[in-house]
Design a protein that fits this description.
The protein has 214 residues and is α/β, with parallel strands linked by helices. Helices cover 34% and strands 15% of the residues. Keywords: Flavoprotein, FMN.
Length: 214
């Protein structure tokens, strides 16, 4: 394999809409890898990390990360050190997040807060490609708020935010899906992604694939 994408699945639910979006992304990358014209060096590895499988404690604002060696003392007691290493080793990062009260879930916010040492240690995530997919229960359930939080986090870390480049009118630049369908009381199963979100995810995967193989 050539480059590697880490997919951080930030939902506490392993089988919800967010998981369907990230799984569809990984499947599209696998399909692109299967093209006969690609050599092994141009195939991209995808690793999905379910945050719910990791223990990440709350930041306690001790400011130890501001001083050399710019590490968090809590990382010796939980899994943040593992996640730090995986993010640093990746060439690109995709975060999948549901909207919880127009924000990211608590487990994902803990990751964001605890990633401060990566910035203080001279931007250890700089220049990595980054994007986001989001899910919500309702059509207007907070996708933009989640996008705002996560893209700002990426920019603060020095990452390069990219978007999907599908059809310029009908495909969203940042893939999202809602549980609510057209009818006000009509809801989809988590595994039943709509065509717009599928196309957007596929366009985003293609963008990652193309940029990582430049």
């Amino acid at each position: 394999m050539g480059k590697k994408i880490i997919v951080i699945m930030g939902s506490p639910r392993k089988n919800g809409l967010t998981a369907s979006l990230t799984s569809h992304f990984a499947t599209k990358i696998d399909n692109l890898n299967s093209l006969e014209t690609l050599t092994e060096d141009h195939k991209i590895e995808v690793e999905i990390l379910n945050l719910v499988d990791f223990t990440v404690g709350h930041c306690i604002a001790c400011d130890s990360c501001l001083r050399k060696p710019n590490v968090c003392p809590l990382s010796e007691k939980d899994d943040m050190g593992v996640l730090d290493k995986k993010m640093q080793e990746a060439d690109a990062i995709l975060v999948g997040s549901p909207s919880y009260f127009f924000n990211v879930p608590g487990i994902l916010k803990d990751l964001i807060d605890r990633s401060r040492p990566l910035k203080m240690g001279k931007y250890k995530l700089k220049d990595k490609l980054f994007s986001v997919v989001s899910a919500s229960g309702l059509q207007n359930g907070g996708h933009n708020a989640v996008l705002d939080v996560l893209t700002h986090w990426a920019l603060i870390q020095g990452m390069i935010v990219i978007s999907a480049l599908g059809h310029p009118v009908i495909v969203s630049n940042f893939p999202s899906e809602s549980g609510q369908m057209l009818g006000i009381k009509e809801f989809r199963k988590p595994s039943d992604l709509g065509e717009p979100s599928q196309y957007a995810v596929e366009a985003l995967a293609t963008r990652f694939h193309d940029l990582l193989n430049k």
